[in-house]
Amino acid sequence: MRLEDGHGHLTYSTLVHPGDDWSQMWHSLTTHVPAVRDAVAAAGPFGVSLRLSGASVDTLRDEPDEVERLAGFLAEQRLYLFTVNAFPHGPFKGRRVMEEVYRPDWSTSTRVGYTKDIADLLARIAPADVRPSIQSAPLAFRADVGSAEVVQRLTDNVLDVVAHLADLERRTGRCVTLALEPEPACYLETTEETVRWFEDHVYSRQGLTALAARAGVPVSEATDLVRRHLGVVFDICHQTVGFEDVPESLDLLVRSGVPILKLQEAAALRAPEVDADVVAELERFTDTIYLSQTTELRDGATRRFLTLADAIDAWREDPGGAREWRTHFHVPVFLDDLGAFGTTRFGIEQALGVHARTPLSSHLEIETYTWDVLPPHLKTGDVDSYVVRELQWVRERLAAASPART
User: Fold this and answer.
1) Which one of 93, 186, 249, 371 is CB 3.0 to 4.6 Å from 138, fit for a cystine?
2) CATH architecture group of domain 9-267+344-401
3) Which residues contact 324 (CB under 8 A, 6 or more apart)?
4) Which residues of the chain have pLDDT under 70?
5) What is the pLDDT of residue 405?
6) Residue 377: what pLDDT?
């Protein structure tokens, strides 16, 4: 939905619903999204964030009638598509995902072609008055990046897509953007690392020269071109898991000229004190198909674990001392008290406070995709009702943080 006071478009990620192929995504889109729209924006229009897997993109590329059916449905239902989640290329529901969610990564031609196909689709069916965004992986899983040559290949492929986006705008008049999403345990993880990659590999003389050659423009125009088409998704959950100060990280991106193309409202598990009782409760969150990257703060130092189970194993070996854990497990944003522990909802409130005063992005999205693996005690309704509560909560917090009108 379009928010007031220049605060952009707000929606939720359809990654929460089944969508590993186009038939699943079509069913989810036509079943759940209208129900949510009716509850929060009955008169419309209501913005859509569409999860598109590689299989779905293949279908839409090869079957033009399906694209027409999609465009017709959106128009009839007072819906508009303004962002696509192209992070997970493969299956994401009902089977082990873990680190496979980052593959194929940005070193591959598969990731490049998949992203270009989505850009072409958005140029066809997104409204003319929005700049649609493509949410994508943080280059690669960190363990898969073993050399400078790999980093260069990751960068070259991103620049290849940026050149495609520039050419697409020249041909169609539609500006599509690519938003990379930093995440724990990935090559782009912290905000500082992300800014450094942009400065060293994209905004550098070498990066701008490479982009200019690909896009067929003078080097003097490459800086504006890359900032027009390439930026980041700032997932509040991811950055709070790393114990970042959210307002400071947002300010760093702004000062560095890295566009925040999507501000993603998501909350992580937080255990401010870890003891045997808390560990026993947290074990209910270890039986999951997703990675649960966990950061421990102990005696002023942080330690990173790939999964919550790894953190628990380390605690059992050395249970003494005060420590705090934050775990990459998305929980509903309106929840703060989960009994034995809490969430990083405070990070969302901080970010919305900044955004209310000085809008950071035109795309706001709630991404609580873990409905299917939430412990039963956190489910008090169906997925649509939870999504509605999340949208209402974000809208209310944003309104409360906005400067009073005179």
Assistant:
1) 186
2) Alpha-Beta Barrel (3.20)
3) 270, 271, 272, 273, 274, 296, 297, 298
4) 405-406
5) 56
6) 75
